[in-house]
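Homework help board

Subject: predicted structure for assignment chain

Our instructor gave us this sequence and asked us to write out the predicted structure in token form, then describe one feature. I got the tokens but I'm not sure how to describe them. Can anyone check?
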Amino acid sequence: MLELLLCSLITVLPDYLYRRHAQGMRWGVEITFFTMWYELRWGITACLILTISLITLVFYYHPSTTNAAPFFRTIPLLPEGGGRVEEVFVKNGDQVTAGDAIFSLLDNSQLAAVNVARSKLRQADTAFVQAEAQLAAANATLVQAESALKQAENELEKKRAVSSRGQQLVSQIEIERLENTVAQRQGGVQAAEANIKSVKTQIDTVLPAQRESAKSALEQAEVELGKTVIYAGVDGMVSQFFLERGDYVNPILRPAGVLIPSDGPESGRYQIAAGFTQLATPVIKVGTLAEVVCLSNPFTVIPMIVTRVQPVVAAGQIKPSDVLIDTMQRARPGTLTVAMEPLYTGGMDNVMPGSKCVANAYTNNHELLSQGDLGLGETLFLHMVDAVGALHAVILRIQALVMPVQMLVFAGH
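My token output:
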């Protein structure tokens, strides 16, 4: 409507003034509602063509969208495993900081697993004491075996010495018996040494491995026990949280609520995502200036700057499936998604995250024009493009004024 009024000032109005004062036609006589098209046909035709051209020029080089909002992230409050709620530490709407406990689940089975793991660890520690006692006993057995062997060897040597003098005091059978005894005592010494080696292997290798295994099992059981208490990962506000003792919570089917971060890039306080028509792709770049008006902060135009342009159109994404894709099922063209941040610090402090916003982006050819390398026609065209940006800025401010009236009166909200 604004473009039509502006265009009529330089088309229909001069045509009417010419008809009225130059040709002497009078309103209501020669010029009536029935003869208006014939008498003012040149002005009306020129007005329509100029209006369409102006609207196309404005919305192409200074695109606008109503699909803009400061999106924010929510964090689901979920345990890693399902269970019954044992205790609730916060209420719906409470502010929490990172590390605060939110609720806990029944931990009977986890406590039992921890107790079993601790018992096995104590058994492993006790096995060390028992092994040390076995090692001491094995050393004593070795001393006894070595003493018995030495005694048998001495007795055998004495008998052989007596037999070597030619005396018949010692029989050959006695000597053979002593030799067998020495061999038996040597086997006892070897058995004692092998027993000591076995006990040392238990102490140095087997028991430490068993103890580490028991320690790891205890740590795992304690980790599982710790999972029964759900903590806040970031600072934020607990929302949609109505748990009571005895409720069943499942990470897939029954979440406990959501946590809305209170600060950071994911809070919606520092960035607005807007979806422009794909025709704006050649126009909107990183660094493009923009303005937004949001319902939660009416009558306020917030200067913005484009910080990121999504390199793909989300409507064209596909996922592997067992159904062939038909492009007719994706009739919606999709939008060019851009991220904008306030040009000045604190620009979005009064905008509620998730608020509905209207955004304008503006083409700026000032640097290109300041170089002075363009021809006359291109220079005039770029000046005209930058000039009509003011028209779109005026339209945005009119929208900011009309928005509350439109929502409260005409929309009935």
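Reply (TA_rk): Your tokens look well-formed. For the description, you could write something like this. The chain has four domains: 1-59, 62-72+268-410, 75-106+229-261, 108-226. That's the kind of observation they're looking for.
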